[in-house]
Amino acid sequence: ELRSLKYYLTSFRNVGIFYEHVCNRILDDLVELMDPKWIEVVCAMTIRGGLNTTVRAEHIQATRGKSGKKS
């Protein structure tokens, strides 16, 4: 639901953390919910001073070999 997504994203507005941490936290939450093989989160931040920041975070699920161990 878009309203829930909007509330989730705006919940970071008044939290005193760096942009990189926000992007990584969103990525961690999505990985926990969806368990994807690959996902990339791109956060485009704009502050009042006119400086734009784009942060990318990526998750790649580890593959398992024939022995069942992560490779």
What secondary-structure arrangement, pairings included, does this model have?
Blueprint: H1 2-10, H2 19-34, E1 38-46, E2 52-60
Antiparallel strand pairs: 1-2
Structure, described:
With 71 residues, this protein is an alpha+beta fold. The chain is 35% helix and 25% strand. It contains two helices and two strands. The protein has helices at 2-10, 19-34, and strands at 38-46, 52-60. The protein has a two-stranded antiparallel sheet with strand order 1-2. Strand 1 (38-46) and strand 2 (52-60) form a beta hairpin. The longest helix has 16 residues, at 19-34. It starts with a helix and ends in an 11-residue tail after the last strand. The model has no long low-confidence stretch (mean pLDDT 89).
Provide the helix percentage: 25-40%
Low-confidence stretches: none
The average pLDDT value, as a whole number, equals 89
Largest sheet: 2 strands, antiparallel
What gap, in angstroms, lies between the N and C termini?
37 Å
**What general outline do the C-alpha atoms trace?**
globular
The total count of helices amounts to 2
- Beta-strand segment tally: 2
| Structural class based on helices, strands and sheet pairing | alpha+beta
Task: Note the beta-strand portion.
Answer: 25-35%
Radius of gyration: 15 Å
Task: List the helices and strands in order.
Answer: HHEE
Question: Going across the major beta sheet, what is the strand order?
Answer: 1-2
